[in-house]
């Protein structure tokens, strides 16, 4: 997957790092603080509010209770990448997990920090999809802009190779027909269903990650 360009909210997904940098950051968060900066880092760990069963949140750090133990952690990701960092402050054991997959690896991180946390079953492989030919006049009616949110739109375009999909701020990717209204991406496990009302295209539904998100056609 190409890297996302997120200039406005860089802290939410535009930071660049690698395993070496993340282990340096992890070390600065574990053990007795050795500087004013590391003391400030420790205050970020302190729970400030509930965040679900056996979970609390501090300054963006989550704390998970595992019996008498606790794991301070956080995760993140962009398209095609998932990350996890966590540690047991009492045992001074920490882990960084970086993956080139849209599937999270949080369970691997938790299990490495504390083996009492079980690994999750592996995800089911994506369904095998078969591309079929669809007449160009049918493809043409799907061309347009669909509003996912007021800030995020999906644009469907048609060129000599077929239909393409472009989400606001992301590259264009081809989509492939498996029926006259159902399409799929090959670069990521996601599908599009076009919704017809009275013979006209009214909306599309994006199926990805177990969620179905409707986007009405705005032009």
Question: Describe it for me?
Answer:
The protein contains 4 helices and 15 strands. It has 219 residues and is an alpha+beta fold. It has 2 domains: 104 residues, no CATH class; 82 residues, Lipocalin, CATH 2.40.128. The strands form 2 sheets. Strands 10-9-8-7-15-14-13-12-11 form a 9-stranded antiparallel beta sheet. It has a 6-stranded antiparallel beta sheet with strand order 1-2-3-4-5-6, with helices on both faces. The longest helix is centred in the first third of the chain and has 11 residues. The two termini are 28 Å apart.
Break the fold down into its secondary structure elements and pairings.
Blueprint: H1 19-29, H2 36-45, E1 49-50, E2 55-57, E3 62-66, E4 69-78, E5 81-88, E6 93-99, H3 106-113, H4 136-140, E7 144-147, E8 153-159, E9 162-167, E10 172-174, E11 176-177, E12 182-184, E13 190-197, E14 200-208, E15 211-217
Q: Which structural class fits the helix and strand makeup?
A: alpha+beta
**Average pLDDT figure:** 92
Order of helices and strands: HHEEEEEEHHEEEEEEEEE
| Unreliable segments of 5+ consecutive residues | none
Could you give the order of strands across the largest sheet?
A: 10-9-8-7-15-14-13-12-11
Question: Termini, distance in Å?
Answer: 28 Å
Helix proportion range: 10-25%
Total beta-strand segments: 15
Number of helices: 4
Largest sheet composition? 9 strands, antiparallel
Strand content: 35-45%
Outline type: elongated
* Number of discrete domains: 2
- Report the radius of gyration as a whole number of Å: 22 Å
